[in-house]
Design goal:
Largest sheet of chain A: 2 strands, antiparallel
Largest sheet of chain B: 4 strands, antiparallel
Strand content of chain A: under 5%
Structural class of chain B: alpha+beta
Strand content of chain B: 5-15%
Number of helices of chain B: 11
Distance between the termini of chain A: 52 Å
Number of strands of chain A: 2
Strand order of the largest sheet of chain B: 1-2-3-8
Oligomer: heterodimer
Largest interface: A-B, 63 and 59 residues
């Protein structure tokens, strides 16, 4: 029917042409993401202006105008008429205090050992591919606290002094921050789990007690809890019995965060289908084996983000202890401002920038790790 | 939970009392109650003995004693001769003030940042992302210190000022702004506003009923805008402009010690208040932004497409389809953030802004009435928490998905 001569039929493939320049590479990306419409262009300009007005002064302050070395405040005083930069020499001079507080200089190696042990045990625990998880967890949760306790406070047998006693009043800086955060985290998880189970219990008295406990601690600010533990706890005890100040704070922080933890865990328990409970009971498991082997592993896996959020909150909240007169990292930095040796206009900014960076690194690191774990454990539901 | 109570009447003989779940559960509950009661008895007796030894009279008599300390900001009349009770009330009002203003600011900023995180614009998205990450990962107390010690101490001294539009002025004594002055006749304007609000409410419900009956929409928003703005404006001019602005007065001439802002003219927001409210709002906004983002992402794209398919315009889709569904996801966590902000306002004590905790701390130091003061704190914060969550639960129920 059709005459073959009329049609042109291509016998080889057409050459693949590169995509138009305007849709690829940096230019195309910018057209898509920055200048796709007039409104978008205006937003871009606003964004660039904001970036410039926020980032530029920070870089100028922290790096360009910064003073890196020096003996005292004279090094950090800006030349007349010029803006003051960050005084990193001051942070450098005060670094031991920020890390150890007033811990005696000759005993600081003990704190270093604790830091090192902590890192040595935590890092393999955090990396999923490292074997011996159970041993590692036991060492971290049981052996490490005992060792750390004696290393930090000291150890004596009768008159023989193995490690000289260091009063907790001399502790400070990052040491106090980490002690409160880690103790709070480690202690609040089991208490929180117990409270969450109690809140879902069928025994009315136990449920009521748990509900009141959780709602009470969640309803009041942490500051009042800290005031209560530092002012009222001594009143509760018989005459002559005194608690260490740090211990009192630890008790307050733990009770407070275990109430939050309980609600997070409860969320996870609620998300477990009833069939899992029934299945476990059909297998003949009693209450605790059922919880330990079937329910809690699934429930805790579900609420990892919530648990880590509580941890991050607790880590940030450690700063509040400075209000009841303890010197955590922020408290130590705050108290260093009274030293006339380093009193310059930029001292406060430098100190706060340093503290913010440290806290940001810890908290941001925790949140990134939680996202990583969440993704790793999420495989079961992914299609 | 272990609900193994399948007793059958035919088999009364049980293995033993120890294995009877009912007996066991009763035993554990009685044990718990006994332990708690014993603990309570231990604490109360010790506290009473300790207070007696320290010669502190327990009871509420101290609230009528003269406080003898000044408070830098109070919403009601307060002087050093006022009672401890008044001082605590001033602190309570200041807490409420910070909470209300902080919540409004945090909500606005949080919604803007949350929506910005979903923007197509790369720079805006990144800015919002880093705002959220930085603000959420730095302790609130540090942020309060930053605003108070590093920012608001770096502004001009008492004899100088920074001005914006020649209306708002900032110096080390705080932020000065014009203050509205209500002269006689201004009650008419207020009345007009109340009438306008009432009328708006009536019109709204009438318009809804009419639309449900006939399908005809009524421009409720424009009418309401006209009423709420127009009616008070008319009343304002009719009654001879009774409301005026009192601008802060800055004295530049004369002896040096008298230069600066005249005290008591215009509104003065003290630096403590500014630092606390700013820090609370900026910090909480970071959390609200994430809640808003999650809420908007939770509305499936099919809903938007279906709305478009029905012929709704973009604005209508957003207002009638997307936002109501997103709000269901947003409201419960938003409530927690409002509560957090209110409780976090207690950090005021760190910069000596006279809130409930700060004033209470001063009273505690002066009188030693630790039990009573801490009881007041706990009661007020607990009831604020419970009231807010009750209100939000009610609101949440109204907004909740109605299923079969």
């Amino acid at each position: 029917m059709a005459n073959a001569d009329v049609f042109h039929i291509r016998t080889e493939e057409a050459p693949t042409l590169p995509a138009p320049v305007s849709t690829t590479g940096a230019l195309g990306w910018m057209r898509d993401n920055l200048f796709s419409s007039i409104g978008n262009t205006i937003l871009t300009l606003i964004g660039l202006f904001l970036l410039y007005s926020i980032i530029a002064p920070i870089i100028q302050f922290a790096f360009i105008d910064a003073v890196w070395t020096g003996e005292d405040r004279t090094a950090c005083l800006p030349p007349p008429g010029e803006a003051a930069g960050a005084c990193w020499a001051y942070v450098d001079a005060y670094l031991p205090q920020f890390i150890y507080g007033r811990y005696p200089v000759e005993e600081r190696y003990r704190v270093d050992i604790v830091y090192a042990l902590f890192a040595l045990l935590l890092v393999p625990l955090a990396i999923p591919s490292v074997p011996f998880k159970r041993t590692n967890a036991l060492l971290f949760l049981v052996a490490f606290p005992i060792v750390a306790y004696f290393l930090l406070t000291g150890l004596t047998f009768g008159d023989t002094v193995v490690l000289p006693i260091v009063e907790t009043a001399q502790w400070g800086g990052l040491l106090v921050t980490l002690v409160i955060a880690v103790t709070g985290i480690v202690a609040s998880l089991p208490i929180g789990i117990a409270l969450a189970l109690g809140r879902r219990s069928t025994m009315p008295a136990i449920r009521l007690v748990c509900v009141i406990f959780i709602e009470f601690w969640r309803g009041v600010p942490l500051i009042t809890v800290l005031f209560m533990s530092s002012v009222m706890l001594p009143l509760f005890l018989p005459e002559g019995v005194t608690f260490d100040k740090l211990l009192r704070v630890l008790i307050g922080v733990t009770l407070f965060s275990s109430a939050y933890m309980a609600e997070v865990v409860r969320g996870g328990l609620q998300a477990i289908p009833k069939g899992q409970y029934e299945g476990a009971m059909a297998l003949g498991l009693r209450f605790w084996p059922m919880m330990y082997l079937v329910i809690l592993p699934q429930a805790l896996k579900l609420v990892i983000p919530g648990i880590v959020n509580t941890f991050i909150g607790l880590f940030k909240d450690t700063t509040l202890v400075l209000i009841v007169g303890m010197f955590d990292l922020l408290g130590q930095i705050q108290s260093s401002f009274t030293d006339p040796t380093w009193a310059t206009p930029s001292q406060g900014h430098t100190g706060y920038l340093f503290a913010a960076t440290i806290f940001f690194l810890f908290c941001f690191g925790m949140s990134r790790y939680s996202i990583y774990m969440e993704k790793r454990l999420h495989t079961g539901h992914k299609r | 939970m272990a609900s193994q109570d399948h007793e059958s009447d035919a088999a009364p003989a049980r293995a033993s009392l120890v294995n009877d779940p009912k007996v066991r559960s009763l035993f554990y509950q009685v044990l718990l109650v006994v332990v708690i009661a014993a603990l309570g008895y231990f604490i109360v007796t010790n506290t009473v003995a300790n207070l007696e030894r320290q010669n502190i009279a327990s009871g509420w008599g101290f609230v009528n004693n003269t406080a003898g300390f000044g408070i830098i900001q109070s919403l009601v009349d307060y002087s050093e001769t006022s009672t401890y009770g008044t001082a605590l009330f001033v602190g309570f009002l200041n807490t409420l003030l910070v909470a209300v203003i902080g919540i409004s600011l945090a909500t606005v900023v949080g919604f803007i940042v949350g929506i910005a995180r979903l923007s197509n614009n790369f720079i805006i998205k990144q800015l919002a992302y880093w705002y959220v990450e930085i603000v959420r990962n730095v302790p609130l107390l540090l942020q309060i210190f930053f605003w108070y010690f590093a920012v608001l101490r770096a502004v001009p001294g008492k004899r100088e000022k920074w001005s914006l539009f020649d209306t708002f002025h900032l110096n080390i004594a705080g932020l000065r702004a014009p203050k509205p002055v209500f002269e006689s006749g201004s009650s008419l304007v207020v009345m007009a506003l109340i009438v306008a609000l009432g009328a708006t409410f009536v019109i709204r419900s009438w318009a809804r009923k009419r639309q449900e009956a006939t399908g005809e929409p009524f421009p409720v928003f424009l009418t309401a805008l006209g009423l709420i703005l127009g009616l008070p404006l008319v009343a304002y001019f009719l009654s001879g402009m009774p409301i005026s602005l009192e601008h802060p007065v800055f004295i530049e001439t004369g002896p040096v010690f008298r230069q600066g802002f005249e005290i008591g003219v215009g509104i003065n927001l003290i630096p403590e208040f500014l630092a606390l409210t700013l820090a609370l709002a900026i910090y909480t906004a970071g959390f609200i932004a994430e809640i808003v983002r999650a809420g908007i992402l939770a509305v499936s794209h099919g809903q938007t497409e279906a709305a478009h398919a029905l012929g709704l315009r973009n604005g209508q889709t957003l207002r009638l389809v997307v936002i109501p569904q997103a709000m269901r996801v947003i409201i419960p966590p938003l409530t927690s953030q409002y509560l957090n902000l209110t409780k976090n306002s207690s950090l005021a004590v760190a910069i000596a802004f006279p809130d409930l905790v700060s004033v209470g701390g001063t009273v505690l130091n002066q009188t030693g009435q630790a039990v009573e003061i801490i009881a007041i704190w706990m009661t007020i914060y607990l009831s604020l928490s419970l009231a807010t969550s009750a209100f939000m639960n009610w609101y949440n129920q109204r907004m909740a998905l109605v299923e079969r």
